[in-house]
Structure formats: structure tokens, C-alpha cells
Write a structure and sequence with these properties.
Structural class: mainly alpha
Order of helices and strands: HHHHHEEEHHHHHHHH
Distance between the termini: 64 Å
Number of helices: 13
Strand order of the largest sheet: 1-2-3
Radius of gyration: 19 Å
Shape: globular
Length: 282
């Protein structure tokens, strides 16, 4: 059994290193020429793999799924969706018009969008991308928590990440589809459906040519050292590759669904449903 597990990890490890080698966001030559860096990345991936496969095999309850982790790690994962990106209010005015009001968590203006946007046929699509990008932003934050990184992005990181994600949305329709599936599942009170769509979104970010996931990690982790960023990228890639190669999406989705209930993330998804119906045209 141990040999089978070891062989499975080697498949994951090989997949991750091939992905890193092919990605422009990773200085793989520098990484490969530093034996100590590679050793640290391998150890971090092995730990990620073992923790995830243990969780996949124990999904009866959240306590069982996370029971092998320290209390601090458990709390970090359980509170993942309390993390916020920025605030959006959809305001229906007395004259029948609709305004979107954007603000940071502290109430200050955002650098990447106007504080007040009148919703009409000219602004609808652009702001649909902004709201969808906010969802993907928080999905990536979840992955950071799952691999044990508690990150509070700076306003600069939020702005850069949002610009990057809206650019991705402009050329990759499958991410809008992933968000739409989250919204539809949230409308049906189907938390496992939301979680499955979250995993699909992460897999799409991982598989896309010139991994957008890695470039987003570099933005979120911009204050960390080069080596720590590479190790985090390797752990994230390991997490997703393990889900794919072990056919573990349903098990991981079940665990995520257990800490999704009554979170602000679900409110954001339902807000997107409201946004879809906010603009009425003849």
C-alpha cells in the first residue's frame, strides 16, 4: 500500500515539475540549479499530497476531514470564505435606474473601478467581468488557505489581481461558465454544486496555457521571497494535480461544502444572480 501511495505521489510530482518547467512565470532554470530549493519544494509537496489524500479518504464530517491538521490550520480552512476582496452594492433608484457602488473593505475608493457606476447596456458587460473576477479572486484565496498560507492582500495586490483576472475572462469563456455554475448552484442552495464549480475553476486556472494561477500567486505573494513563492506555487500545483489524478474532486467538494454555509461568498454569488436581472431592456 505504501508503495502504491509512493508511486501515486511520484506521478503528481512529475506532473507538477513538468508544469513548472513549461511555465514562463517560474524561473525553472534557477530553481533546478538550486538543490536545496528543489528539496524544500519536494518536501512541501509531499506534505501537501499526504494531507490532501488523508482528507479525501475521510469526508464524513468536517472534523474528520480536517482532524489530522493542527487547530490553527483547521481554523484557517474553516474561515476561508470570511476573507473578502471588496464591497459591491447594487442600488435600485426610484427612477428605475440601477447603480453599482464599489468600495474597499474599509470604505475607501478602489483604484481599478469607479466608486459609482450607472448600470446600462454600455457598462453591463464590463461590470459583469468585475463581479465574476471578484469570485475568482476569492477562489484563489481559498486555495492559498488550503495549502496553509494566510494572506491578506494589499490594495495594490487586489488591484493587480483584479486586472489580471478580468484579462483572463476576456479571452477564456470557460471561467465565466465556472462562475455561472457557482451562481446557479447557490440559487438552488446546493453547496456541493458550488464547491464542484470552485474546483472546476481552479483546475481550469491550472490547465490553461501559461498558467494564470501561477501569475496570480506571484501577485498575492509579492512580499514573499522568490523561493517561498516557488514553493507555494509547487504546493498549489500539487494540490490540484492530486485532485485530478486521484479523481478526488467530489470528495474535496464535499469537504468545502461543509464550511460554505452562510458565508459571505454565497452572498456574493447570489448578488451576481441579482446583477443578471438588474438591467431590463425592451
Amino acid at each position: 500500500m505504501a508503495s502504491r501511495s509512493g508511486d501515486d505521489f511520484l506521478k503528481v510530482e512529475n506532473e507538477v515539475f513538468q508544469k513548472l518547467k513549461a511555465d514562463d512565470e517560474v524561473d525553472y532554470k534557477k530553481f533546478q540549479s538550486d538543490p536545496e530549493a528543489k528539496k524544500k519544494a519536494e518536501a512541501a509537496m509531499k506534505k501537501t499530497y499526504e494531507e490532501l489524500t488523508r482528507m479525501i479518504a475521510h469526508t464524513a464530517s468536517l472534523d474528520e476531514a480536517l482532524g489530522h491538521l493542527s487547530p490553527d490550520r483547521q481554523d484557517l480552512i474553516k474561515t476561508s470564505f470570511r476573507l473578502q476582496s471588496f464591497n459591491v452594492d447594487i442600488q435600485h433608484e426610484t427612477d428605475g435606474s440601477v447603480n453599482l457602488r464599489f468600495a474597499s473593505l474599509s470604505g475607501t475608493p478602489l483604484s481599478f473601478v469607479s466608486s459609482v457606476v450607472k448600470l446600462d447596456s454600455n457598462t453591463y458587460e464590463q461590470n459583469r467581468y468585475v463581479l465574476a473576477a471578484r469570485i475568482i479572486f476569492e477562489v484563489v484565496m481559498l486555495l492559498l488557505n488550503l495549502i496553509v498560507l494566510a494572506v491578506k492582500p494589499s490594495s495594490k495586490a487586489v488591484a493587480e489581481a483584479m486586472e489580471k483576472i478580468t484579462t483572463i475572462l476576456s479571452f477564456a469563456d470557460n471561467f465565466i461558465d465556472d462562475v455561472d455554475k457557482m451562481v446557479d448552484a447557490a440559487r438552488r442552495d446546493d453547496n456541493e454544486g458550488v464547491a464542484l464549480a470552485i474546483i472546476a475553476c481552479l483546475v481550469d486556472l491550472y490547465k490553461i496555457v501559461g498558467s494564470q494561477l501561477f501569475s496570480l500567486f506571484k501577485i498575492f505573494l509579492m512580499d514573499m521571497s522568490w523561493l517561498d513563492i516557488i514553493i507555494a506555487i509547487a504546493q498549489a500545483a500539487c494540490y490540484i494535480a492530486t485532485i485530478v489524478l486521484s479523481a478526488g474532486a467530489a470528495a474535496v467538494a464535499k469537504v468545502i461544502s461543509l464550511f460554505l454555509d452562510a458565508t459571505d461568498f454565497l452572498r456574493k454569488l447570489l448578488q451576481m444572480e441579482e446583477f443578471k436581472g438588474a438591467l431590463h431592456t425592451d
